[in-house]
Specification:
The chain is an alpha/beta fold. It has one domain: TIM Barrel, CATH 3.20.20. The chain has 15 helices and 16 strands. Helix 10 runs parallel beside helix 14 and helix 11 runs antiparallel to helix 14.
């Protein structure tokens, strides 16, 4: 771990793939070392839904994400600050990354109004009026006390016109300057900048030039998988990742299917987050080697096999498909827990297998196998 006088995070690259942009590294934070590439489960309200921390750890989790927007509304960032920050408040034993709240407020559509100052919005539950701008986002994230925090940005939903994408990108750049000025804890919280630009490669290049000019501890690719088709996602990830500094951690925001992870690692991305594994679990679905399946399906009703034979997770070691089918159909809360354990473990295993292949020098063969088995 880092000492009190060192930088907020430190990133070291252990191995690179000569065929692609893939690399394996180590991200050192004040709350632990993270081996990259890494998948980060989303703990929206300072908890990974349907799971306890010991279950999250047992899945192989190294770092989690918490949502500033939700924690700002409930229980409030000042309350969390008085409790000692997110780590003490939630008893989380892992490094934490908080998002800026930008994506959540922009997804409110009719409940928000954007200006250069920031975003005026209504609480999606109570209707109460609120405002978040760059300064408030930094205030909230400084109070929450995560190891890594994100700059406040504007994310456009696709399809977006070039004019819409450019306007949001330029506002994101102006807001980054304000985030830098108001970030009160640079010594112990690493601020990552976010590259925007939608599906337009020249805008992505311009955004990368401006954002990386700030020489921050790390950089993220935002505004991906918000309405594009797969070819567009892959094109923009490949294009944008190469524009980010090779010596800094690269984070692809909100992306986390098994194929998305393999492809982004091939491009040189180090970090990913997505609500998908736990959201699918709450709807009775699981990741299997052959793809996504619904345990509601009648074909599992009398199936004595483990969910994924050979998977090391608690669920696959202790329960059969028939039992999981029963829990899902009976709407038992334990169904969400057991399927979340499996899905989170599955994505961790995907990232870890890529890392091991990079270190061993055979990532190209591993990626080609992933393309055949996962992408179809």
């Amino acid at each position: 771990m880092l000492n009190a006088m060192s930088e907020a995070v430190r990133f070291e690259i252990e191995a690179r793939c000569s065929w692609s942009g893939a690399r394996a590294g180590r991200l050192t934070t004040r709350h632990g070392v993270v081996e990259t590439p890494v998948f980060m489960p989303v703990g929206t309200n300072a908890t990974v839904k349907a799971m306890l921390w010991d279950q999250v750890l047992a899945c192989g989790t190294q770092i989690v994400l918490a949502n500033s927007y939700h924690l700002y509304l409930r229980p409030g960032h000042r309350l969390v600050e008085r409790a000692g920050g997110l780590h003490q408040f939630s008893a989380c034993p892992l490094p934490i990354l908080t998002d800026s709240g930008g994506f959540q407020v922009f997804s409110l559509n009719q409940l928000r109004r954007i200006s250069d100052d920031g975003v005026h919005f209504r609480d999606h539950r109570t209707g109460d009026e609120h405002f978040i701008g760059p300064e408030r986002s930094m205030e909230v994230q400084n109070s929450l006390g995560a190891d890594i925090i994100m700059a406040f940005d504007e994310c456009v939903q696709n399809p977006a016109s070039r004019a819409e994408a450019e306007k949001a990108m330029e506002r994101t750049h102006r807001w980054l300057e304000r985030c830098l000025k108001s970030h009160a804890r640079p010594a112990d919280q690493a601020l990552f900048g976010i590259v925007q630009g939608s599906i337009y490669e020249d805008l992505r290049a311009e955004s990368a030039r401006v954002v990386t000019g700030a020489d921050l501890p790390g950089f993220a690719i935002g505004g991906v998988a918000v309405g594009e088709d797969r070819p567009a996602i892959e094109r923009i990830v490949l294009h944008t990742t190469a524009l980010l500094p090779a010596s800094k951690p690269r984070y692809l925001m909100g992306v986390g299917t098994p194929w998305d992870i393999a492809y982004a690692i091939r491009c040189g991305v180090d970090m990913f987050d997505c609500v998908l594994p736990t959201r699918l679990a709450r709807h009775g679905a699981a990741f299997l080697p052959e793809g996504r399946v619904s345990l509601k399906n009648a074909r599992f009703a009398a199936d004595p096999l483990p969910l994924a034979p050979g998977c090391p997770c608690y669920t696959c070691r202790h329960h059969c498909r028939a039992y999981l089918h029963h829990l899902v159909r009976a709407r038992e809360m334990s169904a969400a827990t057991l399927l979340s354990i499996h899905n989170v473990t599955h994505l961790h295993a995907q990232a870890r297998a890529c890392r091991q292949a990079i270190l061993a020098g055979h990532f190209r063969e591993h990626f080609q196998r992933c393309r055949r088995e996962i992408a179809g």
